[in-house]
């Protein structure tokens, strides 16, 4: 007999950035962060988890290619979920003993890996929820975020749709380092995101190692974690609750700039932005100057691709102008994606 369950998880793009770990093993961050979840119609991972006594070992297939499951991150997720299932089986002996069976995980992204988007967030979120569904665990999204965090930090924010905060937490065991919903997507349904693919190449320095070098060498980093981010967290949550795009856009852009400044302040320096990224920043500045207020906001993660947030009513003034200004540049593709989750959790 094969037991199985499926789920999907969305991609999220941070507007207050996670950068720095206080515990690399448990993936505990040095600051809190906030993200906006993108529409699952456009970007999501679909995962089926199965278990059976006829399987010989744990396996993971991503877009039809076999992945190593022996790494500490995947192992941590498997271990945590199995121990929750084992506890359930112990308290209810009539349940089938799934916790001891080998797992077979099959994942597919509905976006090309060539889109250059970090897929680890949606990937680990979907993996954790698929297994939790298979095991029929009574866990809330916040409970599951604690497990997904150990797969990849940003994955904990993909357990919710809409506007999500990852509270850094203070405890050494990480039990209070979890994701919580600030507001559902329906709270601010006019939010849009445009993804400008500058380069589909794999990033030069991975986030995992990049943030470790930053923590070890950057003087700006400490100021960012202790002073800049707490201020931005408070301003961002208020901006989202009040649907204040001016404030949302300003903090989003300042956050991206602060994060990339600490990358430059890392030794040796880390450069994620390139000339095309900087051209996109200038076009967004032109758009906002023309409008006389902030109607577009850029943000960049650990790579040169831009994500531009704007409101639906400004589609022509933002997406239209960006496509016109940058559309002819070599290597540009742009996709208009609704920053809205369709997931029913
Ligand atoms: C710049 O979540 O990929 O996108 O926890 O080591 O897997 P690990 O790092 P990861 O880092 C994401 C960094 C970021 C900012 C963010 O998403 O908050």
Task: Report what the structure shows.
This protein is α+β, with helices and mostly antiparallel strands and 345 residues long. The protein contains eight helices and 15 strands. It has helices at residues 72-91, 120-134, 141-151, 207-217, 219-241, 245-264, 275-291, 315-326; strands at 2-10, 12-16, 21-23, 28-29, 33-37, 44-52, 59-62, 65-67, 103-109, 163-167, 178-183, 191-197, 296-300, 306-311, 333-338. A five-stranded mixed beta sheet has the order 1-6-9-7-8, with helices on one face. Helix 5 packs antiparallel against helix 6 (245-264). The longest helix has 23 residues, at 219-241. The relative contact order is 0.17. Bound molecules: ligand DP6. The site of ligand DP6 has 15 residues, from helix 4. Residues 14, 17-19, 27, 33, 118, 120, 152-154, 207-208, 301-302 line the site of ligand DP6. Residues 9-179 form the Diphosphomevalonate decarboxylase-like N-terminal domain. InterPro entries: GHMP_kinase_C_sf, Mev_decarb, Mev_diP_decarb, MVD-like_N, Mvd1_C, Ribosomal_Su5_D2-typ_SF, Ribsml_uS5_D2-typ_fold_subgr.
Strand content: 15-25%
Main sheet makeup: 5 strands, mixed
Distance between the termini: 28 Å
Radius of gyration: 20 Å
Overall morphology: globular
Tell me the helix content: 25-40%
Uncertain segments: 329-333, 340-345
For the biggest β-sheet, the strand order reads: 1-6-9-7-8
Q: Write down the overall mean pLDDT.
A: 91
Bound molecules: ligand DP6
SSE string: EEEEEEEEHEHHEEEHHHHEEHE
**Number of beta-strand segments:** 15
> Which structural class best describes the helix and strand composition?
alpha+beta
Question: How many helices does DSSP assign?
Answer: 8
